[in-house]
Amino acid sequence: MRLSAAHPSTSRKGQIPAVIWWTDFLIIALWAQELSGGLDFLSPGVLICLQSGQWLTALWMGVLWVIVQEGGGNLVFGVSILFYAGMLIFFLLSKWLLEPENPLFIILFSLLLACWSWVVLSGAISFQELPPRTYSAWSWIARQWAAYVVFWSGALFIYRRGGRNGRI
């Protein structure tokens, strides 16, 4: 339910229209994912929508992110679907423990998500009988955790300051 009488396609003065904000988010996340060697930067976008209670936007964005990641990756189809389904289940379960707006929630959930990402990717790699990763699991999880915390916190801050809190 919206409390504002403004039409959802208009934005308040000084705010970025939602379509432009999410397009910019996608471009920056894909760029960061490429430069980081494959760390995930798309998931925080879905998490921002879940935190804001924008379930429909989170749904279509999750579908778009799955298409982007499944189309650009070399793993079997379904890895991204499994990852995002687990992410949604973990979000719904963990928001009972901590308020999603709490910074501690972002830090702890990012750690859980980094571990979940490692489990899903390692399972897919072994399922396809690809050569195992040559680096430590904990160093990869630490890098992914840091990426989630920094990118999610930064994007959420910018979204609340300059992005529009409406649906696309």
Topology:
Layout: H1 18-35, H2 43-52, H3 55-72, H4 79-94, H5 103-127, H6 137-161
What does this structure look like?
This protein is an all-alpha fold and 168 residues long. It has helices spanning 18-35, 43-52, 55-72, 79-94, 103-127, 137-161. The protein has one domain. It has 6 helices and no strands. The protein is globular, with a radius of gyration of 16 Å.
Which tags fit this structure?
globular, mainly alpha, single chain
User: What is the count of distinct domains?
Assistant: 1
What's the helical proportion of residues? 55-70%
Give the CA-CA distance, first to last residue: 15 Å
Q: What average pLDDT do the residues reach?
A: 83
Total count of strands: 0
Anisotropy-based shape: globular
Helix count, DSSP H or I runs of 4 or more residues: 6
Low-pLDDT runs of 5+ residues are: 1-11
Largest sheet: none
β-strand percent reads under 5%
Concise description?
Helices cover about 65% and strands about 0% of the residues. It has helices at about 20-35, 45-50, 55-70, 80-95, 105-125, 135-160.
